[in-house]
């Protein structure tokens, strides 16, 4: 129960394992939208979590680590 799980769902968008969608098993999950993946946008990706603390930390990195309010 003390294991932190990061799911790599890059090639499994919409897939299920034992009736449960991938991206819902771990503490945080990642999806890739690069050109050679199942769903593409050219580049980019998505991170999903239901943990508010992890969500807030991810917001910091979405702009490549730049501060939300540049000073």
Automatic annotation (TrEMBL):
Keywords: Pyridoxal phosphate. Signal peptide: none annotated. This is Verotoxin protein. GO terms for biological process: polysaccharide biosynthetic process. It comes from Escherichia coli O157. It comes from the Bacteria. One of its GO terms (molecular function) is transaminase activity. Gene3D superfamilies: Type I PLP-dependent aspartate aminotransferase-like (Major domain). Pfam families: DegT_DnrJ_EryC1.
